[in-house]
Description:
The protein is built from 8 helices and 12 strands. It is an alpha/beta fold. Zinc ion (ZN) binds next to β4.
Amino acid sequence: MNMTPWKLLxxxxxxxxxxxxxxxxxxxxxxGANSPAAWLARARVVELGHPFAPDMPVFPGGxxxxxxxxxxxxxxxxxxxxxxxxxxxxxxxxxxxxxAAGSAPVDKLPPEALMGPAAVVDVTAxxxxxxxxxxxxxxxxxxxxxxxxxxxxxxxLIRTGWAARWPDEQRYRNTDASGVMxxxxxxxxASRLLxxxxxxxxGIDTLSxxxxxxxxxxxxxxxxxxxxxxxxxxxxxxxxxxxGAFIVVSPLPVKxxxxxxxxxxxxxPPGD
Length: 272
Ligand SMILES: [Zn+2]
């Protein structure tokens, strides 16, 4: 197998195709069945975000989506609404500026940073035993032992299984009698390890990358200050393989935004 031509591709596409080429080509332009377009055409695309609706769970103090009808086809000739929404409502991206003053707002996240190969870390078993489970460096290192070292292009997606509680806000926040929320997240130590690996972003299928009981948001401070971004409130990740999917994150490029609602797509390897 001659992989050399792939090195000439833009990096994300080279990674996208790295495990998929079955034969080499002497051309500098990938052709035929091995071309990026052919891979994309055969890939299954799945949505990793939730639909946006007024009943979506929000973080305490968050702004719920509201949609006011401003015109209807029957009365105005066209249907149009006015939306109100928080920057962190629904499936959304946290930009570095969310916790690091003066760093990149969401509109300054470059497109190439918003896509990359997925590293899916499955902690559903740990979370089933402990809703406050904090992803540890050991969880990340276990993934690396099985699948290889994390690369700077990776998007690390934490699958906790919590998306099954969406959109039931009571079960999703899981607040106890003293007002403390209980849902899984990442430990600060795991965040530091991922920052050292220079991965582009961290996504999770819960209300926050910090665990529910956190009041100091150490993981947010660590990873966003390091220039990375988060994707929160991801939907069910069970269809993703641990490695081999390619992710495209598409937040609204709101000028100076601390974050923004996003659609998130996964391209699954052909045959999966
Ligand atoms: Zn957020």
